[in-house]
Amino acid sequence: MQIRASAVVRDGSLGVALIRDRRFGGGLTALTPWVRGGLEVMIARGIGDRGEAEATMFGGWADGRVIDGLFLSARGATLRYADDAGTMSTVGGAVSYEAWREDVRADRVRGRLRLWLAVDRIRVSAAMAPAPPPTRPRWSRSLS
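The chain above was modelled as a monomer; its predicted structure follows.
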């Protein structure tokens, strides 16, 4: 088993208006031959075009090998604004199948191909600013 720790610090600004854009965070990851998982925390100061906005993000993920070649994955994250301007949560999961794995021999080397089927769900609280309406795809036609 391996445990890894990571940290991130970003101190920056956006555009000619120098809108505050800072991030501080860290995470832990645990690795075993059959299961991997991790947790992370991030503090944001300045989000998008709102330099005064502050938020905290908590996230986690896990994936595991069910049988040789078949994997299940799950992940989730929550972004919570400090001024009670709302939250946004994302949960998701995936099933993946590894069609073939690395096979290193003296005469040939094969790569790795993993096929994914993934589903995500995003939930936004009523306090958050409304999202813009979806645009029609270019290939859609109006029947009127």
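The chain has a mean pLDDT of 80.
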